[in-house]
């Protein structure tokens, strides 16, 4: 998939630096997609302030991570950034303040394109998608397997933002 920038002078592709990160996904229209931060925001952080309740962050599709992140942020009181969604949102790469924790399917695009995006560890990364009241989806970047795990586990975070 190829996307042209506003001046149509350079074809943009997955892995190119663009809008504060590296292009991780471009939709079928070639006009929209998302970029990934160029490095991890955390290497060992919980999914959320652990409580046995769902926050309604169930969107798994591409384009649902931002809404999921907002639901997690709304459910947590205080200003702590000691959990995955808040850590992703507090990132300001490229001067942008609309970063979020990717949904399950968005995270899978990061896995698929990790060689072009760069700087991933062969470990577990959180998605913003809940599985149940006490677990959320994550992905192992060594083999691509996605599975749910307790929200109190501490794993990697890589923020994304839409364009």
Overview of the structural elements:
By secondary structure, the chain is of the alpha+beta class. It has one domain (3-162). The protein contains four helices and eleven strands; from the N terminus they run ββββββααααβββββ. It has helices at 65-75, 84-90, 104-112, 114-117, and strands at residues 3-4, 11-12, 17-18, 21-26, 33-36, 42-45, 124-132, 135-140, 146-150, 155-157, 160-162. The strands form four sheets. Strands 3-4-5-11 form a four-stranded antiparallel β-sheet. The longest helix has 11 residues, at 65-75. The radius of gyration is 15 Å and the shape is globular. It starts with a strand and ends with a strand. The model has no long low-confidence stretch (mean pLDDT 91).
